[in-house]
Amino acid sequence: MAEAHDYKAIGTSPVRPDGVDKVTGRANFGADLNLPNMLHGKVLRSPHAHARIRSVDVSRALEMDGVYAAISGADFPSGAEGDIQGEGGGTVSDLAQNIVARDKALYHGHPVAAVAAKTPYIAERALDLIEVDYEVLPPVLDVDEAMADGATLINENLHTNGDTSQPASNVAGITKFERGDVDEAFAEADLIVEGEYRTPTAHQGYIEPHACTATYSEEGKATIWCCTQGHFDVRSLTASVLGVSVGDLKVIPSEIGGGFGGKTVIYLEPLAVKLSEVSGRPVKMVMSREEVFRATGPTSATHSRVKVGAKKDGTITAASAWIAYEAGAFPGAPVGPGCMAIFAPYDLPNFRVEGFDVLVNKPKVAAYRAPGAPQAMYAMESAVDDLARELDMDPIDLRLMNAADEGTQAPYGPTFPPIGIRDCLQAAKAHPNYTTPKGEGVGRGIAAGFWFNIGMQSSAEVRLSEDGTVTVVEGNPDIGGTRASMCLMAAETLGVPYETVRAHVGDTESTGFCNVTGGSRTTFATGMAVVQACEDIIAQCKQRAAATWDIDADQVDWTDGEAVPQPGVNVDVQPLSLADIAGNAGRTGGPILGRASLNAQGAGASFSVNMADVTVDRETGKVDVVNFTAIQDAGTAIHRAYVEGQMQGGAVQGLGWALNEEYVYDANGEMENAGFLDYRVPVTSDMPMIDTHIVEVPNPSHPYGVRGVGETPIVAPLSVAANAVRDALGFRIPDLPLSPPNVLAAIDDREGA
Amino acid sequence: MGAYAYARPTSVEEAVSVLASAAEAGQRTQMLAGGTDVLVQMRSVDRDPRTLVDVKHIAETNRVEIGSDEVFVGAAVPSGVLNENEELKAIFPGLIESADLIGSTQIQGRASIGGNLCNSSPAGDTIPAIIAAGGVCVIAGPSGTREVACEDFLTGVGTNVLGDTEFLLGMRFPRPPARSGDAYLRFIPRTEMDIAVAGAGVALHLDADGNCVHARVAIGAVAPTALLVPAAGEALVGTQVDDAALAAAGAACSAAASPITDKRGTVEYRIKVVGVLCRRAGAIARDRALGN
Which tens digit of pLDDT belongs to each residue from A185-203? Predict the structure, then answer.
């Protein structure tokens, strides 16, 4: 377990610096900015899931009183080339066509044109005047249909893995990897468990809809205010769609009301800039909840098959998986990470996995918390649960027997440094919620979760004010309490009270480059930059103290927020605090500013083990979660309450996905439940208190041992819920969601009712 | 484009006259009580201008009167007021519970059961409870008032018998005798903030031996309107409301249901669950009548 550290700030749970403004409504979110003479932009969206666009005529809309601009795909540069950076990847061309359709509308809700008008109401009326001539095509609505022989092609120029010697296909890519002799290892197994599983299209469900305001100046430069997980990415993505330099754009992030990966991409920003350019006025665009559902996010629906072979003692000899992910209208399903994550908790000498990135006429998928892992691991963790039953083994013991450890070669390639899967399994086994016998009619489920976590590029500046207070400036929008985490790490490093440190999220022109707040990277990578910037401050403070005392800088120590002469250095001086040095900075060389920029390596993987008890109403099919326990390796928890909050939030999101959330489409590919009434995320009263247990196996690659914690929490709950319902019912329902109609239909099928 | 207008009559006569003159001028009107449906619709479903006629400032629509034979609840009385009326809760626990299912505490400061009825959604939670309790709608119009049984008030999805120049004043309920009980249950996939997939309301009286002498059962969200199911009530009358009788009543509800498959549930699901709800609500109503 973790070695003991005498941390003062790290591991505490102070109030977040942005908290008061958020609970009082003072904080500004994406839709809160208003500028003089501002117009309101609205988007015309395709009423067809799949249609060729013969023509778009905006002239009648432009004639309407109060309308200042109307644009369509023809107003944007064509033939953009190259790949985009970011968590989801993809090409500039696909991104540009997703912002506004050109030749084809590829999903119901695909933007086709946009207008800017004096009021939102006028803008909406003006949309009715835009004439679009569609040739309606049959929609392709799931992976099985898309992969079938003779399927309607969504993109006639798309060939699997770019291989133009093969006919065009809806399968954009196939990922395969394999280790050992899988067929022989299955032959050696005493027992083989197989399953086939489906998960539905699910949305990130952030409470704040996408919103932005853009203003374009006569010198060809634009400023964009928006809610985003990464304003540097908004800048580069928007620049690529508009065909301008990133130097022409300034992006200012607002506070953000949730993202979960769905705000690492752009939708409105290029439209708002173009509408502002055409109209000569600032333009604000705010999506409705319906638009958010119809045209943003979601994550992939999946179809998968998993096979696991084991010896009688529980040793897994081989595993194989076939996983097909819906990409939406453009390539880019998170099937790669799904393939890499599916077997991650286990030490498997023999495995094979094959993944398919499949186009369908639905919105282009976007990153969603641990993109791709929940679906793939749902399949594997369900199969492992069935294996434990077949073997009559405790499901934790079975996992412990096969768990990866430090030195295990991960199924996706690298050799694991210290990891926490075994610690999580042992903590689960000892947890009172596991050792307590389950009640009458209660089903209990357990499953493991995992996410890689990423490092990537970050910058930070730390500025000393003249009274010794500290300002941390970095470029990651604060979604999960990262300001508080940055302040804690700065306070710990500098040796000053948390309350004297403030964190500021700078815009693209006021702070160094940072990749998105995503991949659970911010506390790890940007935190590392903040620590290094604080070390830079300390080095400078030592120099200032040395100059003051007329000794060498290497004769000065930094202890508890003070410069002190090293033991044995013969000077008769009082320690100099950060405030002393800051107050005197003008006489010792000028303002003190620390900085660091890095491309962080060694983001430690975060494993989890979750468990739950459920009851099932056999007459209505309703599943109630009685208790839920989230156990996760955080490396080192910087802000304990926010680590627990991530674990609880991920559990609730995952349970929502498992139990009720799904896109319901009609035969024409129109989503029928584009609102929170019928797209059912859990409400507070649906959920029990989510118990948490933080495991701390420090990450050797971070100065304080941090592992990202934001994404892993959503991975295990899908299979935890399914395994618990399996336990309660006595049979497995392999397709999510386990919604009351689906569960009751399965019970009736089983009982022949 | 037209404009929104707002009228705030303070008497029944004034309200009727506002409606009559708007009808004459060919202007669209919509009654406004708590606004918990109307305001949402104005911001999303249907933004076209109309005259809102606020009925919250008329004495009769705010009246709650518990008489020896009859209970009157004005159309604009907020459900929050009903929830805090202990006498009413003792008389119609099921009806009050159905009102309490709609909205949060804040919303209930505005939302009314009269508004729920006039919105005439097939899934309106108070409607089966009102029908089961024998509610009679009192309707004001140019030629005075008329009365329509609640089960006859509804004509389709979102439609009812109210004419352009009429509005709902309130509902009359016969005061139930001793050993009576009512109950309403709905099914939603969540615990709150949701809309009924199916609902069932039961009101019954027992004699001194525990035999059911009167029962009304109504169902919601399984047909274009909430429905009174006479066969379900008949299945309970003359029994001790035991499991067999409840099963028969449930089967009658399932038989009376003509639901659709939509995003909230399938035909099969709704037919089955409305029977389950009837059984469970019937047992609660019986236990209440027995004083258990």
Answer: 999 999 999 999 999 999 9
Q: Which residue of A has its CA nearest to B280?
A: A619
Residue-level pLDDT at A2:
44
Last residue of a domain, one of A573, A600, A627: A600
| Predicted confidence (pLDDT) at residue B1 exceeds the cutoff of 70 | no
Tell me, yes or no, whether A428 lies in a domain.
yes
Looking at domain B60-174, its CATH architecture is 2-Layer Sandwich (3.30)
* CB-count exposure of residue A656 (10 Å: 0-12, 13-18, 19+): buried
User: What ipTM does this complex have?
Assistant: 0.94
* Same-domain status, A622 and A730: yes
> For residue A648, what pLDDT band results from cuts at 50, 70 and 90?
very high
Residue A82 lies in a domain: yes
Are A743 and A652 part of one and the same domain? yes
The confidence band for A447, taking pLDDT boundaries of 50, 70 and 90, is very high
pLDDT tens profile A268-310: 999 999 999 999 999 999 999 999 999 999 999 999 999 999 9
- Is pLDDT at A235 greater than 90 in this prediction? yes
- Whether residues A739 and A662 fall in one domain: yes
Q: Chain A interface residues facing chain B, Cβ-Cβ under 8 Å?
A: 121, 125, 288, 619-622, 659-660, 664, 672-673, 677-678, 680, 682-683, 685-686, 739-741, 744-745, 748
> Which residue ranges does chain B devote to CATH 3.30.390.50?
180-289
Same domain? For A579 and A705 the reply is no
Checking if the pLDDT of A1 tops 50, the result is no
Neighbours of A173 (CB within 10 A): 19
Domain that holds residue A429: 302-453+604-751
The number of distinct structural domains making up chain A is: 3
Q: Which fold has domain B5-54?
A: 3.30.43
State the pTM of this model. Answer: 0.96
In DSSP notation, A625-681 reads EEEEEEEEE-SS-SBHHHHHHHHHHHHHHHHHHHHT----B-TTS-BS--STTTS-P
**Phi, psi of A363, deg, nearest 5:** -55, 150
Looking at residue A88, its pLDDT comes to 59
Stretch A705-713: mean pLDDT, rounded? 97
CB B84 within 8 A of CB B63: no
**A438 and A493: one domain?**
no
Residue A386 domain-assigned (yes or no):
yes
Residues A105 and A227 in one domain: yes
Question: Which pLDDT tens digit goes with each residue over A79-127?
Answer: 677 887 655 578 999 999 999 999 999 999 999 999 999 999 999 999 9
All CATH 3.30.465.10 domain ranges in chain B, comma separated:
60-174
- A19-60 pLDDT per residue, tens: 999 999 999 999 999 999 999 999 999 999 999 999 999 999
What is the Cα–Cα distance from A424 to A482, expressed in whole angstroms? 24
Nearest-10 Cα torsion for A130, A133, A138, A143? -50
Angle of helix A421-430 relative to helix A395-402, nearest 10 degrees, comes to: 160
- Residue A320 inside a domain? The answer is yes
Q: Which residues from A are below 8 Å from B222, CB to CB? A: none
The CATH architecture one would assign to domain B180-289 is 2-Layer Sandwich (3.30)
Chain B residues contacting A via beta carbons under 8 Å = 1, 44, 47, 187, 189-195, 197, 262-266, 268-269, 272-273, 276
- E-strand stretches of B207-267: 212-220, 227-228
For residue A585, is pLDDT > 70? yes
The H-or-E segment that residue A539 falls in is helix A527-549
User: For residue A691, what are the β-bridge partners?
Assistant: A629
Which CATH number fits the domain that encloses residue A744?
3.30.365.10
Nearest by CB to B190, from A682, A741, A744: name it: A682
Closest by CA position to B82, among listed B173, B204, B191, B152:
B173
CATH, residue A236: 3.90.1170.50
Q: How near does any CA of chain A get to the CA of B19, in Å?
A: 27
